Amino acid sequence: MSPDPYRSYLIRSWQESVADDAEARWYGEVESIQTGQKWRFHNPEAMLSFIRTQVEALASDVPVNKEPTGGDGSFIPPNTPFSGDNDVS
């Protein structure tokens, strides 16, 4: 078991309307309370999958707080703005 088996996360989710898009877009963010590291997502399924991975990694003593993988556009790299030209689909 890892030396500190406790992790806590702040989970945020919201929707924003974009001027040229009639449908509101979903956004999510998971922040590690211990490290301040943030992960951003474009869909709830990807965010929940990431949280599950973090919990399972902690339970199996695998390093946690790794970047999500997939490349399907559901993960937004840290420090990337949520809306505008730099938004990841």
Describe the structure.
The protein is of the alpha+beta class and 89 residues long. It has one domain (9-76). Helix content is 18%, strand content 25%. The protein contains one helix and four strands. It has one helix at residues 44-59; strands at residues 9-16, 25-32, 38-41, 75-76. It has a four-stranded antiparallel beta sheet, covered by helices on one side.
Number of domains: 1
As a percent range, the share of strand residues is: 15-25%
Cα Rg: 14 Å
Estimate the mean pLDDT confidence.
74
How many angstroms does the end-to-end distance come to? 37 Å
Number of strands: 4
Listing every helix as H and every strand as E from the N terminus to the C terminus, the arrangement reads EEEHE
- The SS-based structural class is alpha+beta
Question: Which terms would index this structure?
Answer:
4-stranded antiparallel beta sheet; 1 helix; disordered C terminus; alpha+beta; 89 residues
Write a compact overview of the structure shown:
The chain is α+β, with helices and mostly antiparallel strands.
Helix/strand layout:
Layout (H helix, E strand, L loop, with lengths): L8 E8 L8 E8 L5 E4 L2 H16 L15 E2 L13
